[in-house]
Amino acid sequence: MSNLKGATNILEIQNINKSFPGVQALKDVDFSISKGEIHGLIGENGAGKSTLIKIISGSLPKDSGTMHFDGAEYNPKDPNQALNKGISTVYQELSLCENMNVAENLLINRHPKRGLLINFKKLNDITLKYLEKFDLDISPTAKVEELPLAQRELVEILRAISYQPKLIILDEPSEPLSKSDTEQLFKLLDDIKNQGTSILYISHNISEVLQISNRITVLRDGEKVDTLKQKEITENQLSNLMVGRDIGDIYSGVKTNPKEEIVLEVKDLSSGTRVRDANFKLRRGEIFGIAGLVGAGRTDLALTIFGYRQPTSGNITVNGKPVNIKSPRDAMDHKIAYLPEDRHLLGLFLPYTIAENLLSNNLKEFSRYNFLDIRKLHSITKKYIEDLSIKCSGPNQKVNNLSGGNQQKTMVAKWMATEPEILIFDEPTRGIDVGAKKAIHELLREIARGGRSIIMISSELPEILRMSDRIMIMDRGHTVKIVDNEDNVTEEYIMNTIMNFKKGRNKHA
């Protein structure tokens, strides 16, 4: 970390206030970012982080207060004006054009020209330099829609860097990344910082914020709690500052004690090259964790079981009976639910209400003589709001106005209303804060103790280790190993198992 003594500020904000109907989102917030500093910003969902960065990036007007950027008064009217001033923002919800390739996205609206036409050779050469600098094995001509989520995130970050800004704002940049991808990202950010560029780094991952930041600002309920130097604070102290109480170990809790009854068996299941001869059995009341690096095939396996991807060979058995799952509808008929990692794009209808989201999976359940039974829909929605402790105004609350943790709970409610026996959770705590994460973990355990079975995919090894009864380790579509979750199974054990499998494959390649 660079020495910030005597450094001047690139950004100063004072007494920033912002209100929405019935909500004081920000109250007299002030803090500063130094030149050449990585400044961490943390807080629970609803703490005001997103509102603050939208004001800084020109997406929202402030109600009152002042901002200064690079020594001059700063009051952007829109994101383009902020970008022209030298502030580049990467939001949690990606904004890439999926039907375009990597190069076209990286330099969008800035494509080099040869006369009136795009100079594609120069465009690809410039893009390749950025990709090589980040050590990314991605073709400049690869369509974005064909890239995994982690690589899309890295392309978006590269696009922000390509503007050569004075300040980069990164909102949850490491959320879809593997540990090795995150380490690459941190190396790049450190290089950028040392060249004088400032970075505002927003994340729910407190250990990452501590690792990368020079200073850290904590928001709670729209107010600044404190700004601290990285060396002056511990992970537990930061967690407690975020939530205003001692939350203890977020992964603590009793095991689910699954039964011996097998509810799902996957045998020699393949789907092209993405899933190769997968084998496992799922017990009733079990939380079965799936671990692996980006590209391991975890999500592809889940999508094959759920009928979204077609198997090329192998068998699936549910409750002892062979089944032929060709579509998600087939999977739902066999009491299988899939909760995707990207709740915004694939999991929820954000502009619609909580009740309407429950209806989307259960139209037949809530219909009577071809008419919608509104009373029944609202009654059951209220039950799930209460059972899952969803903080909202009621069934008619629009989902896009909920915090990340409550959106996740809404997605759980949407699928629980289908009365599934098997639930596949893909990155169940992605993009939610430490307090909401603990609530989701307790919810998963409660679901399992109630007799339902859970397959849990997670890139967070501590989450896999603390939540799972058994763990399946995957690599490049293969089932590497299935282990009982005992004391000898550690993060190092899982990583070494994957690395040894890779070495063995390379020897026989």
Annotate the secondary structure layout.
Elements: E1 9-20, E2 23-34, E3 38-42, H1 49-56, E4 64-69, E5 72-73, H2 79-85, E6 87-90, H3 102-106, E7 113-114, E8 117-118, H4 120-133, H5 149-162, E9 167-171, H6 179-194, E10 198-202, H7 206-212, E11 215-220, E12 223-229, H8 235-243, E13 262-271, E14 275-283, E15 287-291, H9 298-305, E16 313-318, E17 321-323, H10 328-333, E18 336-339, H11 343-347, H12 354-360, E19 367-368, E20 371-372, H13 374-387, H14 404-416, E21 422-426, H15 434-449, E22 453-457, H16 461-467, E23 470-475, E24 478-484, H17 491-508
Parallel strand pairs: 3-10, 3-11, 6-9, 9-10, 15-22, 15-23, 18-21, 21-22
Antiparallel strand pairs: 1-2, 1-4, 4-5, 7-8, 11-12, 13-14, 13-16, 16-17, 19-20, 23-24
Question: What percent of the residues sit in helical stretches (DSSP H or I)?
Answer: 25-40%
CATH architectural designation of the largest domain: 3-Layer(aba) Sandwich
Largest sheet properties: 6 strands, mixed
Give the low-confidence spans: 1-6
The count of domains is 3
The number of strands is 24
Distance between the termini: 42 Å
CATH homologous superfamily annotation of the largest domain: P-loop containing nucleotide triphosphate hydrolases
The rough form would be described as globular
Q: Could you say what the CATH topology of the largest domain is called?
A: Rossmann fold
Pairing-aware structural class of the strands and helices?
Answer: alpha/beta
What's the CATH C level of the largest domain? Alpha Beta
User: Which strand order do you get reading across the main beta sheet?
Assistant: 6-9-10-3-11-12
Mean pLDDT across all residues, rounded?
89
Strand content: 25-35%
Instruction: Compute the CA-based radius of gyration.
Output: 24 Å
Helix count, DSSP H or I runs of 4 or more residues: 17
